[in-house]
Design a protein that fits this description.
Elements: E1 10-14, H1 19-29, E2 36-41, E3 55-59, H2 64-80, E4 85-90, H3 111-136, E5 142-147, H4 163-186, E6 190-196, H5 220-233, E7 240-244
Parallel strand pairs: 1-2, 1-4, 2-3, 4-5, 5-6, 6-7
Helix pairs in contact: 1-5, 2-3, 3-4
Bound molecules: NADP nicotinamide-adenine-dinucleotide phosphate (NAP).
The site of NADP nicotinamide-adenine-dinucleotide phosphate (NAP) has 27 residues, from helix 1 and helix 3.
């Protein structure tokens, strides 16, 4: 990122290698208003995006020092072009990997798995929430979207299972609700959104797609388009919104 590339209308995408994040990045880059995208991921930039002049891809881990380093860079850019980020997307999420699947029974609860899932789904987004506040605070509005999930709704939990994933997303929602109360006082220009994308065709949902009803497995491109439309229609009102892909409010 150089001073000459800085303009208004920057979007920040964290967890940028996620299926949903990559679709968001492509659509943001194609916006007519010339949006610039800052992407943060543990992985390097995919070849098809590497030459895009409006994309600034930062490879980073998600420990506190690494997050602070990224935010320091963003603050430096902010000195040149004050409060220039108007949309943030935190896409990190973990449901399964090569070593574990979501729990069906209480006997399957495992300390290491729970820590890993909570770390990715709850703690990493919370660290970004903290570190980004000084970057986003300002006079212009900013929408900050956290990829949550409907299964994080306590009210909606009629099926059970997926203990760690559900609980980590419910905890994320509670952190955001708490932050929204504080932000209504201290960071009024930032709107917080917990977003459920619907079941989306990415590596995260791959093992669980066979029972999805026809027409209910969304492409990342569809979800990205919906999310960008929803943001454009959502006022900055000092409250946390918990919204699905259809812009419907989800019960807590
Ligand atoms: N797909 C669905 O059906 C669905 C449904 C409901 C909610 N969601 C939520 O939507 C978000 C995006 O999901 P996706 O489907 O696009 O997932 P995905 O393609 O599997 O991407 C996984 C994301 O999580 C990050 N991640 C994975 N393991 C991590 C770890 N150990 N530490 C830190 N970051 C880690 C990756 O970041 P890097 O870029 O650094 O690799 C990447 O952003 C997630 O929060 C997910 O819970 C998805």
């Amino acid at each position: 990122m150089t001073a000459s590339t800085v303009q208004k209308q920057h979007a920040l995408v964290i967890g940028a290698s996620s299926g949903i994040a990559l679709a968001l990045i492509e659509q943001l880059l194609s916006e007519e208003k010339g949006t610039q995208v800052i992407a943060v991921s543990r992985s390097s930039c995919p070849d098809n995006l590497a030459r895009n002049q409006r994309l600034h891809w930062l490879v980073s881990e998600y420990n506190e020092t690494a997050i602070d380093n990224v935010c320091q860079q963003l603050l430096e850019q902010g000195k040149i072009n004050e409060q220039y980020i108007d949309r943030v997307f935190i896409c990190n999420g973990l449901l399964h990997d090569d070593t574990f699947t979501p729990e069906k029974r209480v006997e399957e609860l495992n300390l290491e798995v729970m820590q890993q899932v909570f770390h990715t789904n709850t703690i990493i987004p919370a660290l970004w929430l903290k570190a980004l506040r000084p970057v986003l605070l300002g006079k212009s509005t900013c929408h900050m979207v956290f990829l949550s999930a409907r299964v994080g709704s306590i009210n909606d939990n009629n099926m059970g299972g997926w203990y760690s994933y559900r609980a980590s997303k419910a905890a994320l929602n509670m952190l955001l609700k708490t932050a929204a109360i504080e932000y209504a006082r201290r960071t009024k220009n930032v709107k917080l959104i917990a977003f459920h994308p619907g079941t989306t065709d990415t590596p995260l949902s791959k093992p669980f797609q066979k029972n999805v009803p026809d027409g209910k497995l969304f492409s990342p491109e569809f979800v990205a388009r919906q999310l960008l439309l929803i943001i454009a229609q959502t006022p900055v009102d000092g409250a946390l919104s918990y919204l699905d892909w259809d812009n419907q409010t989800i019960d807590w």
